[in-house]
Amino acid sequence: MIASPRVIIVDRPDAAIVPIGTPTHSQEEFPMPDTIFHKIMRREIPADIVFEDDHVIAFRDIAPQAPVHVLFVPKRDFATLNDVPASEPEIIGRLAVAAAAWAKAQGFDEDGYRVVMNCNGDGGQTVFQIHLHLLAGAPLGRFGTTA
Ligand code: 5GP
Prior knowledge:
The chain is an alpha+beta fold. The protein is about 20% helix and about 15% strand.
């Protein structure tokens, strides 16, 4: 008999959850993390911002890997996908929904696109504030090759 796989859902109430740029919290209470994306969110360095709402900011990647390459970043602080609590799936859902809405608004939703989240070293993550890559504008090759 094949044992059914066990599914373990791990909630992480201790995960770092720090609102970005929320004026109700002082620096002393919640010191702001300092990735390049936080600097962009705080408008300390320039970026080509294409979308923003209360939860998500999106800007063009500085080193695009496709004709369209936009990063969707939550306004909540999680270093990696591993750190998002199971109790808050909307953190990720909002990124995907914002990316799809932007694709539709730009008119390439029917042609198609790819969304990717890299996690930690093997995933190729280089900026440790979670983000969703949106790649589009041309037929994309297969993904998942090793370095
Ligand atoms: P990761 O490798 O962590 O999945 O993706 C990080 C992305 O951030 C990379 O595609 C990289 O090109 C992009 N990036 C790094 N620094 C900057 C920056 O200063 N501005 C912008 N717009 N993108 C950046």
